[in-house]
Design brief:
CATH class of chain A: Alpha Beta
Structural class of chain A: alpha+beta
Oligomer: heterodimer
Strand content of chain A: 15-25%
Helix content of chain A: 25-40%
Order of helices and strands of chain B: HHHHHHHHH
Strand content of chain B: under 5%
Structural class of chain B: mainly alpha
Helix content of chain B: over 70%
CATH architecture of the largest domain in chain B: Orthogonal Bundle
Number of domains of chain B: 2
CATH topology of the largest domain in chain B: Helix Hairpins
Number of domains of chain A: 1
Radius of gyration of chain B: 84 Å
CATH architecture of chain A: 2-Layer Sandwich
Number of helices of chain A: 4
Chain lengths: 152, 589
């Protein structure tokens, strides 16, 4: 009910203020942030990249509701822009409320096509509510990196 | 016979079966002891079989129950506990995330966190314990290994969830899905195991139940079978023993009633009844034989009685004759004996009186002889004393003679000594004369010398006096010696007279001693003879007393003999009467 009320509310806001510099990040911005992480990974190596990604003070990797997350291919979270508690945890069996094994799909995407979009449910760092999310995931060495948008 | 017919009736249809007939054939040849124990043996076998079955089943049931209670039930309990704990812990994780999402106080959340951590550790231990049970099957072990791996994942995810939940309740909510899956997987495995354990328990129970049912059936069947068979065997054995015994009893009753012409059946049986029948047959034959022997014996006996009666009559006649003869002789003899006894009694009385008077005289005689003997003995003793004194006198005489001779010799020696003094006195007299002459010369010389020789004249006078005195003394000595010689001669003469007298005395004493010795011998002889006479008279006295005693006894004996003769006469009369009576009886018989 709350979620539905929130969605209604969010829709009203979207209708009321159609500004280009939006309150939430867009798909392109998400992809761009992935590329920045890749560039940083290439430039500074994994450890520095993981640190920068996990540090909320780094603006390149923290923009409104956009943040990157990096997992290795076993499904262990190595860096997270919004939820530091997850770092170091094996989340390969993580399942959203629809029953989707989202980490497994991301691993499969990275190992297979190498990049792509995956839809799932995830808590929004701004509202701290579980919302529908769509993330762009890309292989990055032995890892994959992803940045997602919350669908309004 | 009627009873026999009744007992035979129900067996008739049974006997028509060939099997039963052959069974009877076998039974008839078995000993009664074996037959009697047959029913018991059947029951015993059934009992043993039932007992063995019960033992085996009970042992198996006990083992099954032990497995059920000690292994399966325990395992089931453990599995059930693990299952419950999983559910509880799972719910606590949900509760934790829910509380975190609703921002409950940190204190409550921390308490719940601690509980969950402790629950997880405890569950790990329980699962570990379960895996290490020694009664697990290979399949169970494999599934428990699998479960342990799943549990590792589950515990990791659970911890991740509550860890994340401490700071990020939204993310913890996200992570509930995977935790849920893990718990479900573990729970499902535990449930499977629980079901399998329950199935195993049911299998054991069913097996136990089936065993119990089977045992029940076996016991019922065994009991019924044992009962039926033993009843059948008892009946058969009874029939095989009772029927022939009844017929044998009948035969025996007839035999005892004296009927020897009865027919005895069952001869061909080989058991005790067969033997009994054979024995009865022998009895019957013996009976027949004894009966014929008895008849012969009876006839012989009758003949013998007639003969014996005739012989008895004859014998009685002879006996009477001889007995009467003997009785008469006996009476005569007894009468004579009676007379003799009377005479003897009289004589005995006389003898007694005489022997009594003789005894008195003999006793007086003996007293006299005794006093003679005593006197003779005293006389002998006096003579012995006399002889001893005579002997002493003789010895004294001898001694006196010897001492007299000795004294005579001494006197002789004295005489010799005295005779030797005589020349010495002559010498002394000569010396005295010479001295007197010298003294005279000296006086003359002194007178010549004058005054100077005056002192010397005195001495010469003195010496002259001494010489004169010496001559005088010597003269006296000679006189004394002569006197001594005379005395000694007288002494020797007297001594010789004494010796002669004593010698005569000694001879007298010797003769007296000889006479006394002879007298003593004679006296002893007298004493000895007197003693012997005393002893002899004593023996005579004793004999006389004994004779008196015997005479008295003789007197009594003759009195008794007389009484005995009288009684004998009576007995002879009685004997006569008895013999008459006996003969009357014998003749009548």
């Amino acid at each position: 009910m709350r979620i539905r009320a929130f969605l209604v509310f969010a829709a009203l806001i979207a209708i009321a203020s159609p500004a280009p510099a939006a309150e939430f990040g867009s798909k392109d911005e998400a992809v761009a942030m992935v590329k920045r992480v890749q560039a940083e990974f290439k430039k500074s190596g994994p450890d520095a990249t993981f640190k920068a990604v996990s540090d909320k003070a780094v603006p390149d990797f923290h923009d409104r509701d956009l943040y990157p997350f990096i997992y290795n291919m076993e499904g262990v979270c190595v860096a997270h822009g919004a939820r530091a508690a997850l770092i170091g945890k094996l989340l390969i069996d993580l399942k959203d409320q629809d029953g989707k094994f989202l980490i497994r799909e991301m691993v499969a995407m990275s190992k297979g096509p190498g990049s792509g979009w995956i839809d799932y449910k995830w808590p929004n760092p701004l509202t701290n509510k579980i919302e529908d999310k769509s993330s762009y995931v890309e292989k990055m060495g032995d890892y994959f990196v992803g940045v997602g948008i919350y669908k309004q | 016979m009627e009873a026999l017919a009744v007992s035979r009736a129900p067996l008739a249809p049974l006997n028509s079966f060939w099997g039963l007939r052959s069974l009877f054939g076998v039974l008839n040849n078995l000993s009664i002891q074996i037959k009697a124990s047959a029913a018991s043996a059947v029951l015993l076998i059934c009992l043993l079989a039932l007992g063995a079955n019960a033992y085996v089943t009970t042992t198996k049931s006990a083992e099954g129950l032990r497995t059920l209670s000690h292994e399966i039930e325990q395992k089931l309990q453990t599995v059930s506990n693990v299952s419950d704990a999983i559910v509880t812990t799972h719910m606590k994780i949900f509760r934790y995330v829910s509380w975190a999402s609703n921002s409950l106080s940190k204190k409550l959340l921390d308490s719940l966190y601690a509980q969950i951590s402790s629950d997880l550790s405890e569950l790990s231990i329980r699962i570990d314990d379960l895996s290490q049970r020694p009664d697990l099957s290979a399949e169970e072990k494999a599934s428990l290994q699998d479960l342990t791996i799943k549990w590792q994942k589950c515990i990791r995810q659970a911890k991740d969830t509550i860890d994340v939940g401490q700071s990020d309740s939204a993310m913890a909510t996200m992570m509930l899905g995977q935790t849920d899956d893990s718990f479900k997987a573990v729970y499902s495995d535990i449930q499977t195991m629980s079901l399998k354990t329950i199935n195993a328990a049911n299998t054991v129970r069913n097996s136990l139940y089936a065993d119990a049912e089977r045992t029940k059936t076996i016991i019922i069947l065994g009991t019924v079978l044992g009962f039926v068979v033993s009843v059948f065997v008892t009946f058969m054995v009874g029939a095989s023993i009772v029927r022939p015994i009844k017929s044998i009893t009948d035969v025996m009753q007839q035999l005892s009633a004296g009927k020897t012409d009865v027919e005895i059946g069952h001869r061909d049986r080989r058991d005790e009844i067969g033997k009994m029948v054979q024995a009865i047959d022998i009895f019957r034959k013996n009976m027949i034989e004894i009966r014929s022997m008895e008849q012969a014996t009876h006839q012989a006996e009758q003949n013998r009685v007639v003969e014996r009666r005739a012989a008895m009559h004859e014998l009685a006649g002879e006996f009477e004759k001889s007995v009467q003869q003997i009785a008469k002789e006996l009476t005569d003899a007894v009468a004579a004996m009676h007379d003799n006894a009377e005479a003897m009694s009289l004589i005995a009385a006389q003898t007694r009186d005489k022997s009594q008077s003789t005894a008195g005289i003999v006793i007086d005689t003996q007293t006299n002889v005794d006093s003679v003997a005593d006197a003779a003995e005293e006389l002998a003793k006096s003579i012995e004393q006399l002889a001893a004194q005579t002997h002493n006198a003789r010895e004294l005489t001898n001694k006196t003679v010897a001492e007299s001779a000795n004294a005579s010799a001494n006197v002789q020696q004295l005489l010799d000594a005295v005779s030797q003094i005589v020349p010495i006195t002559g010498l002394i007299q000569a010396i005295a004369q010479q001295t007197n002459l010298l003294a005279l010369n000296a006086t003359i010389e002194a007178a010549r010398a004058g005054v100077a020789g005056k002192g010397f004249a005195v001495v010469a006078a003195e010496v002259k006096s001494l010489a004169q005195q010496t001559a005088k003394a010597t003269e006296e000595i000679n006189q004394k010696i002569t006197a001594v010689n005379a005395s000694c001669g007288a002494v020797v003469g007297i001594m010789e007279q004494v010796i002669s007298a004593v010698g005569h005395l000694g001879e007298g004493t010797m003769e007296m001693a000889t006479a006394v010795g002879q007298q003593a011998a004679a006296t002893q002889e007298i004493s000895k003879n007197a003693q012997q006479a005393a002893d002899g008279s004593r023996i005579v006295a004793n004999n006389i007393v004994e004779l008196d005693q015997k005479t008295r006894e003789n007197d009594d004996a003759s009195g008794q003999a007389l009484a005995g003769a009288k009684r004998l006469l009576d007995h002879a009369a009685t004997l006569q009467t008895q013999v008459d009576k006996f003969l009357r009886h014998v003749r009548v018989a």
